[in-house]
Amino acid sequence: MTTDYKPMWTSLGLNLEKHDALLDVLGKAYQDIYLSQQNRPEGMGYLDFVMSEVHGLRIKELQDARAAGRKVVGTFCVFVPDELILAVDAVSVGLCAGAEFGFDEAERLLPRNTCALIKSFFGFKLSRVCPYLEASDLLVGETTCDGKKKAYEIFRDVQPNIYVMEVPQMKTAQDRALLRSEYLRFKEALERLSGVTISAERLKRGIDLVNRRRSALARLAALRGANPVPVSGLDALLINQVAFYDNPARFTDAVEKLCSELEKRVGKGEGVAPKGTPRILVSGCPMAVPNWKLAAIIEGSGGVVVGEDSCVGERGTRNLVDDSGSDIDSLMEALVERYFKIDCAIFTPNQERVDHVLEMAEKYQADGVIHYALQFCSPYVVESYRVEKELSARGIPVLRIETDYSQEDTGQLKTRVEAFLEMIRK
Ligand code: BJ8
Fold it and tell me: Which of 240, 285, 341, 402 to mutate to test the pocket of ligand 1 (most atoms within 8 A of CB)?
């Protein structure tokens, strides 16, 4: 960062000392994990720039938007429709929660056996190191897993501007009606927040922006089916992470440009790893910035990640919203139609997820699946049993791991991943 952003961070109430410490750790990790990769596509330069300005220029953009009267809405889950947020000209930012920071403070409010993702957003808030949290005019929580649902009750004490959306847990007609009514309630909350009424035209614009972003990410995902694969799993993960907080139109253009570069690579048979490198599909909990741990271990052990069955990945981006409706009712229905298909492990039963993992394994020519669950995340830890059972029955090797954000088990995980890759190679 060349500009001095300290006055902006101070005005947001950040703890500058701790914030500097966080940026130091982040910068070093990025250098070691990302910038040390070989043969990266040129288009990744845009992502490197965005990351270098993640607490700088992007926050300035948010503050400028606020000064111009627009609102910033922070979210924690892919069930919260960006389309509605964009329809009121607000800026949507997916909040990170991917680093072990401020956990001591978080554990004063939360049980120790809470998943790292929840502890992380508490830690960021209590240490006052996240400018996105501080710049948000509204935070949207949801009743997905019990951990998050109950944690928001406590979070409200330190961050009062939180809105909680109810998300159903089954896929019956009643559940669909519940989601629809929750989206209508959210639409009204956004209208109150912004003073803007969502017309069909406005919603269509929001749908179009998000559809374009999802289409660009789908194009990127499809290119990873090539053998050799033209982009590393680490870089693809980063792109999916940045999608949550970058300007959507600018981000989409950058991804489309990168995809054109990757298409050329595929045409020439070039890749980031030679043919024969074990191809891994990762399935499970979302990996928020800067959680690069598992992908770094896999790719540092001689494998390559070719897809993510994750909310920071295909679970969050598959399916577009039908924008053919001409009135608000039909467009809202189209939103519900798209979001109701999300196969998060909070749903029961959740056969769709197993079907998607199988479909993805085939599409991306995966040699094996690594199931990733955060410790204490009951939905994904429990569901990993069925995922493994059904994949194994079809001859797809599966490694199930449970971890957190610390580096303490890195050596142990590396040993297990190496053994898994070795087994696949035979
Ligand atoms: S739609 S995956 S983003 S809820 S890791 S906090 S589940 S205990 S994040 Fe998620 Fe929405 Fe589902 Fe996706 Fe709870 Fe598990 Fe922690 Fe989790």
Answer: 285
Instruction: State whether the beta carbon of 59 lies less than 6 angstroms from ligand 1.
Output: no
332 CA to centre of ligand 1 in angstroms: 24
The tokens for 152 are: 């928001």
The closest-lying atom of ligand 1 relative to the alpha carbon of residue 315 is: 13
Q: CB-based burial of residue 269 (10 Å sphere; 0-12 exposed, 13-18 middle, 19+ buried)?
A: exposed
372 lines ligand 1 (CB under 6 A): no
Q: What is the CB neighbour count within 10 angstroms for residue 332?
A: 21
The DSSP result for 163-218, as a single string, is EEE---SS-SHHHHHHHHHHHHHHHHHHHHHHS----HHHHHHHHHHHHHHHHHHH
Q: How far from the centroid of its chain's Cα atoms is residue 280's Cα? A: 19
Binding site membership of 377 for ligand 1 (Cβ less than 6 Å): yes
Give the H/E segment covering residue 358.
helix 351-363
Per-residue tens of pLDDT for the chain, all 426 residues: 679 999 999 999 999 999 999 999 999 999 999 999 999 999 999 999 999 999 999 999 999 999 999 999 999 999 999 999 999 999 999 997 899 999 999 999 999 999 999 999 999 999 999 999 999 999 999 999 999 999 999 999 999 999 999 999 999 999 999 999 999 999 999 999 999 999 999 999 999 999 999 999 999 999 999 999 999 999 999 999 999 999 999 999 999 999 999 999 999 999 999 999 999 999 999 999 999 999 999 999 999 999 999 999 999 999 999 999 999 999 999 999 999 999 999 999 999 999 999 999 999 999 999 999 999 999 999 999 999 999 999 999 999 999 999 999 999 999 999 999 999 997
Angle at CA 287, nearest 5°, toward 389 and 104?
110
From first CA to last CA, the distance across the chain in angstroms is: 47
141 lines ligand 1 (CB under 6 A): no
Q: Which residue has the tokens 């993510």?
A: 308
Rounded to a whole number of angstroms, the CA Rg of the chain reads 21
- CA 91 – CA 247 distance, rounded (Å): 8
Taken as a whole, the chain contains a residue count of 426
Contacting residues for 375 by C-beta, under 8 A, at least 6 apart = 113, 115, 116, 381, 402, 403, 404
